[in-house]
Amino acid sequence: MANLEFRVGVIGAGVMGEALIAGLISFGVKPSLISISEKRKERSDELVDRYRVKAATLTDVCKSDVLLLVTKPQDMQALLAEIKELLGAKTLIVTFAAGKKISFISEHTGGSNPVIRVMPNTPTLVGKGAAAISLGDGVTNEQRDYVKGFLAATGKVIEVAEDLQDAVTATSGSGPAYFFAFVESMIAGAKKLGLSDADATTLTIQTIVGSAALLAESGDSPTTLREKVTSPKGTTAAALASFENSHLSQIVADAMSAAHKRSQELA
Q: What are the Pyrroline-5-carboxylate reductase catalytic N-terminal domain coordinates in residue numbering (predicted)?
């Protein structure tokens, strides 16, 4: 059972930061135990009003039991330099920056604080996220359960060895953008066939949403579902043959490899 009395600090209360705050509260954390540090006062005021969390100084936030760093990878080093001397002795650091290794966080904070690395994705914003966590040295079972618990309130969460985090980034971290690009292409294709923009958008989105629900709820594999909808020499078979002739599997693999490489470069 996770300790819901941990004090939580959040640095970087943008869109993802807000999603995590909502997840914490859904998990059962009292808003009074959540403090945020956000440079934009209007944004800070908005979140305080919406969630009844506390706005606090950077010093106070860094003394929390659990500190969430929800910042861009390129901003991480400067942030760590700023908070290094402010951290509580036992504060758990949870980093959400793509590509930034646990060793990087430890190196720039003195190495005494436990660190958990997380790769979330944007469907976290609607409670349908996918996140993978990796544990640094010194992380307790209680701390691990706490982080896995509140992330589970925002979607699915798995635990992986850190050397797989770049693969996670290429799969679920960047994955929503692949999906959105495919939806854009389907809408454009439908319009070329004569459908209006509104009708093309409605049909495409509902097809995608329905297919995702079927995949999640039917218990069938993607292969089985594809086969069920594909009649020999039918319309679907013709479309899938076009995908195969265009080497769709290789296109996807190449795209994921490019994301994987870029994640490694951000380390």
A: 7-94
